[in-house]
Design goal:
By secondary structure, the chain is α+β, with helices and mostly antiparallel strands. Helices cover 45% and strands 15% of the residues. The protein has helices at residues 2-7, 21-31, 51-60, 65-68, 87-93, 100-114, 119-143, 156-163, 192-195, and strands spanning 43-48, 72-79, 147-151, 169-178. The two termini are 27 Å apart.
Length: 199
């Protein structure tokens, strides 16, 4: 992990080598194990790998060449269907063995928490969980020799149309993945003394 954290950087120029499906599957399979608030996992990961789709996605992402030129792009998508009565929340809660009474108690807990929230507030909550998954994704990729770039600049309306999953889903990040001939730049960060506060 130390080597991963020291050497991972935001790749801006990918070469033409494609990531094999086994590696993509491993990145996604490990990313899905990421932590999330209450273990709800309010996300989906859309894989884009066709040349024409990557070009379109690159245009949507403000013409960023690292998107159009990568091997695969993963669109991380937040979901806001977390209110009482939705199938998703019930499925997530019902994964652990519970008595009917304890299941209802858990559902009531989430209803009290999420029902008062607006769709925008729920999207904000889900987006925060997606950011955790994205951090894991790029480090997992790095551990497998795959470079990455986290992209948050895009035309939101056009990206919504591109993923086309409906009003309960919103793309929050695009992760460009691929191989590169670039040399990793020297890492510049604040010192430990600058960022750590002991109390």
């Amino acid at each position: 992990m130390k080597k991963i954290m020291q050497e991972r950087y935001s790749c801006r120029e990918f070469n033409n080598q494609k990531i094999n499906q086994e590696t993509i599957n491993e990145i996604l399979d490990l990313t899905r194990l990421s932590p999330s608030s209450c273990g709800l996992e309010p996300w989906k990961f859309m894989v884009v790998s066709k040349e024409n789709d990557l070009k379109e996605l690159g245009q949507i992402c403000n013409n960023q060449a690292q998107v159009s030129g990568c091997s695969h792009a993963i669109i991380i998508i937040a979901r806001n269907d977390l209110k009482e009565g939705c199938d998703f929340i019930r499925t997530q809660v019902d994964r652990k063995p519970r008595t009917p009474e304890r299941l209802q108690k858990a559902l009531d807990h989430f209803a009290a928490r999420f029902n008062p929230q607006t769709d925008e507030e729920l999207m904000h909550y889900a987006s925060l969980q997606c950011y955790m998954a994205s951090a894991n994704m790029v480090n997992i990729a790095q551990s497998l020799g795959v470079k990455s770039c986290i992209v948050a600049g895009f035309d939101a309306d056009k990206l919504n149309d591109f993923v086309n999953l409906g009003e309960n889903f919103k793309p929050v990040l695009v992760i460009a993945l691929g191989y590169s001939d670039e040399e990793a730049p020297a890492k510049i960060r604040q010192s430990l003394e600058q960022v750590v506060i002991y109390k």
